[in-house]
Design brief:
single chain; 413 residues; alpha+beta; Aminopeptidase; Alpha-Beta Plaits; 2 domains; 4-stranded antiparallel β-sheet; 9 helices; elongated; metal-binding; hydrolase; hydrolase activity; Bact_exopeptidase_dim_dom; ArgE/DapE_CS
Length: 413
Amino acid sequence: MTDGTDDSGQSGGISGDGPRVDPDETIGLLQDLVQIPSPYFEEDEIAEFVYDWLDARGHDPEYHHVSEPNITEYEGDNVVARLEGSDPDAPTLLLNAHMDTVLLVEDWDEDPTSGRIEDGKLYGQGACDMKGGLAAVMMAFDALAEYDLAGDVLLTAVVDEEGPYGLGTDRLIRDGIVDDCDAAIVTEPGPILAQEDIANPALLLGARGRYFYDIEVRGKAAHGSKPHTGINAVVEAGKLAAALDDLDVGSHPKLGDGSVCPLKIEGGSQTLSVPERARLMVDRHVVVGETLEDARADAERVVDELDLESDVDVGFREAPEDDILYGPYVTDEDHPLVTALTDSTRAVSGTDPDYGYFSSVGDFNYLGDRADLPTVIVGPDGENIHGAGEFVYTDEVVEVADIVADAAVRLLD
């Protein structure tokens, strides 16, 4: 965290004539956002709030409908707004943040949507992940409206990042909303979920990817008093889970090592019956260079080496479309977006940013891999993400808003 002074010794943001956000207004917006419960698939109220906030400031927002009728039966709306630049050949910058949170956690000892502020921390479910980042980009976007930029700025406040498929940003890509974008900033909390031990101000320049094994094991039923006459699919699935847990995974100089984590074995229910079916679900985080087919081949090789008696089908989690995949990506440190954010961090905080890489996955994977956009994560930090007692540092929310706004001017001016 910073002391809130810039290179000129002024309080609250960027030196010179760059855009600055009002700290009190920023924290007030954050508090309003946190006080609206918005677990994934239940974002209607917060989407309306974001739309109305942008509309009241003359930004002509639009709802972008998100529909997934086959698996989740979900219907919702992203909120999209654009600042048009003066030069059609100049780059377009995407500012992306999600409006949803995880489901409200029961272990809170206070209202999980209180928005209580104490000692520079604002508490509430989703305060850090990622309503702090949402408030930051909304304020940055509003500040940028006062500037005559050459390039466009596209703001996308999306639904269902915390849900199973990231349907909001997936739909942005599928409908071509981000086709004209040249780079993206996602204001997820960074250092707390980085591979390395880093602190804000920080720029996260990539992320591991994630594939989700869904493996069927088919044994042979028999009476439980004579288990040797059958093939116990649950036992075989356990052997496979242990072997996958020891799988050699890929490594990357920036993203670190991949990982494998068996999550669940389902199978068996009848008394005195050898289970004939089991289902094994395994989380696989991957690095650049590891494809879905590589992951399938790895698991099939493990099955062959175990020489199980069961028949095993290695598959992946059902998804609405085959290309809904969290692929890994890395953004070059020399990219103009990274340079702009680095210079802006120095101007706002008076220090160089840490560089790091995200340990897990999110909408940034869709943008950095599927949409092939140079993507940087820069967001306010906090603690207890996804849990009771979640909070975000309020001064970092203001700092991120200033960094993002300043970087947009540097990149698009």
